[in-house]
Automatic annotation (TrEMBL):
Residues 134-232 form the HTH LytTR-type domain. Keywords: Phosphoprotein. It comes from the Bacteria. It holds the Pfam family Response_reg. Signal peptide: none annotated. The modification 4-aspartylphosphate is found at D57. This is Response regulator transcription factor. It comes from Terrimonas ginsenosidimutans. Residues 6-117 form the Response regulatory domain.
Length: 240
């Protein structure tokens, strides 16, 4: 598994951040991209950035961790961290990966992250093996879009413009929701507003890509992964 997974910490206690940060450094497959000290900071960050895993404290002022999960329409996979055990059963109603009791020791932390990786890899494998199309809502109808036809997708707030060679579809999804639907071996988010089909890219510059004569920006945080994926695609095609 060579793909790094992004994660955030959401906890109101600086000491808890210190412990989790120390533990995360022992897991090279994890990349900490943000530290939030309340639910409002987490909500604002997640609106703009896709995240794979969230380490979430339950007992926070104003909005608790459980309330945050209820608020988010499409939350990242979550490992709960708390000093109290009374929410353990309730937490699994939200499909959390694991429930860590503070103080969190490193072996227990590693067990929780390994559980996350197992779940994530299993889901991605199933998606790659079975998915040839997606079904999305456009207006009042559900429509089927073949993956082979998708050129790119652009965010329009709470809607997405999905472009194909023959038609443009306006669908009721956010960029993060569409990203979750698409197999990540074929599609990649290159900007907070754009997802592209990797094998449809015609030109690739330092900060832009061109698909079907449409030039799109590449965000700074996405450039490294895009370069790595395009290099992988090129090596694979070369072997073929």
């Amino acid at each position: 598994m060579d793909q790094r997974r992004t994660c955030i910490i959401v906890d109101d206690e600086p000491a808890a951040h210190y412990v989790l940060l120390s533990h995360i450094r022992h897991v090279p497959q994890l990349e900490l991209v943000q530290q939030c000290y309340n639910a409002f900071e987490a909500i604002n960050y997640l609106r703009q950035h896709p995240v794979d895993l969230m380490f979430l404290d339950i007992n926070m002022p104003e909005i608790s961790g459980m309330d945050l999960l209820r608020t988010l329409k499409n939350p990242p996979r979550t490992i709960l961290t708390t000093a109290y055990s009374e929410h353990a059963m309730e937490s699994y109603d939200f499909g959390v990966v694991d429930y860590l009791l503070k103080p969190i020791n490193l072996p227990r932390f590693i067990t929780a992250t390994e559980r996350y990786f197992e779940i994530a890899v299993k889901k991605e494998t199933e998606k790659k093996e079975t998915l040839t199309f997606i079904t999305v809502k456009s207006g009042n109808a559900n429509i089927r879009i073949e993956l082979d036809d998708i050129l790119y997708a652009q965010s329009l707030g709470n809607f997405i413009r999905i472009s194909t060679p023959s038609k443009t579809h306006i669908v009721s999804l956010t960029t993060s929701e569409l990203e979750e639907l698409l197999p990540d071996d074929r599609f990649l988010r290159i900007h907070k507003s754009f997802i592209v089909s990797l094998n449809k890219i015609h030109e690739h510059g330092k900060d832009t890509v061109t698909v079907n004569e449409i030039r799109m920006p590449v965000g700074i945080t996405y450039r490294q992964e895009l370069n790595k994926r395009l290099k992988r695609e090129s090596n694979t095609n070369g072997r073929d």
